[in-house]
Amino acid sequence: MLAVNIAVVTGVFIHKILLQPYVPYIHLLVTYQFGFIKRALIGAIVGLFTAKVPVWLVFALGGTVWLVTLGLFVQLFRRTFGLDDKSLPLFIFIAGSPFFFKNFMHSLGHFDIYGCLLAIVLLLLPARSVLFIVLAALFSIILILIHHIHLLMYVPTIVVIVAARHYLAHGLNRLSVAVGILSAACVVALFFAAQFWGTMPIPEADFVKYLQGRMADPSRTNLLSFSYIWYQPLSKEIADTWARMPSNILGVPVFALLIWLHTPLWRYFADSIRALASETHRRLVVAALIGVGLGYLVMFAIVFDYSRWMSNWVVCMFLILHVVKMLPAAQVAPPILAQDRKAGVFGWIVTLYPRVGIVRPF
């Protein structure tokens, strides 16, 4: 299954390169040239190193982030579960899931994976000091500067990580509570600034002309077709989403089927929660799962990239499973057995399914 997963990911990457579907190139061109605007951090950083941005940089940068995220996740999994025969079925269902690295490969160049990467870093770092809270806030700020929708997509999971690894593990004191409240206020304030005051202040025609000046090949104007998103108000995004709702909602049964195929993993997740030593911890984990899910429901109502949101929601569930395993447990949850025929069949289907998609499933 591991070998097949590697082959499938390779196939997804080749498809991305050769068939050249939509390339999220424009985000590498946008900078803070005209003041504070949303979705400009990655482009501003790229602009520090090159005045002309080639299209291949989308794949180089996205591929590098993908590889780093994979490497850190393997390290995290090894630390949490080990990498032996007993844990390999669980590894297949998580790392080999079409919601996870395969879909990150399909959406190469999009901003989603940065949230996953920084959440994994927080799961690997020590969490004893209040500096951990400050670092989590800094990561959240970076994510919102990359794209403000991270406030709903990965920031809630980061909050869960901080709450479990610092506050539950080391208790509350005046300093940690004050730092937490101040950090949350800064993150929320930045989100509102990006959402409501982060629009491009110049006419769109001038903006497109500036972007063309940053392109290594200015003739590829088709890659600038999404320049309107720096001008589009929230009301327009919501209207577009609900206009597409009748067709996009048809993908829900496919999402449900893919989630059902992960049944052995969800059973292990539920057993891990029940195995926690503290009833308070169990209730807080359930509340955290509901809170993260509510954030994704809001995204479903605002932006229509349903396959991406569903995939990232599942990834957040995977990350919270690691959080659960870091809490004190009264017993060991029974692992997914390689001899389980149903788990084996589901594992092969999950392995062979190449990706979930961006807007509609597959």
Termini distance?
Answer: 21 Å
- Helical fraction: 55-70%
Anisotropy-based shape: globular
The structure class reads mainly alpha
Proportion of residues in β-strands: under 5%
Oligomer: single chain
Number of helices: 17
Radius of gyration: 21 Å
Helix-strand sequence: HHHHHHHHHHHHHHHHH
Arithmetic mean of pLDDT: 94
Low-confidence stretches: none
DSSP summary, beta strand count: 0
Main sheet attributes: strand count, strand direction, barrel closure: none
Explain what the structure shows.
The protein has 362 residues and is an all-alpha fold. Helices cover 66% and strands 0% of the residues. It contains 17 helices and no strands. Helix 3 packs parallel to helix 6, helix 6 packs parallel to helix 9 and helix 7 runs antiparallel to helix 9. The longest helix has 26 residues. The radius of gyration is 21 Å and the shape is globular. The mean pLDDT is 94.
Describe this structure in a few short sentences.
The chain is mostly helical and 362 residues long. It has 17 helices and no strands.
Describe the secondary structure blueprint for this structure.
Elements (H helix, E strand, L loop, with lengths): L1 H17 L22 H7 L8 H26 L6 H8 L5 H6 L5 H13 L6 H16 L3 H4 L1 H16 L3 H24 L6 H11 L19 H15 L3 H9 L2 H12 L4 H24 L3 H20 L15 H12 L10
Helix pairs in contact: 3-6, 6-7, 6-9, 6-16, 7-9, 7-10, 9-15, 9-16, 15-16
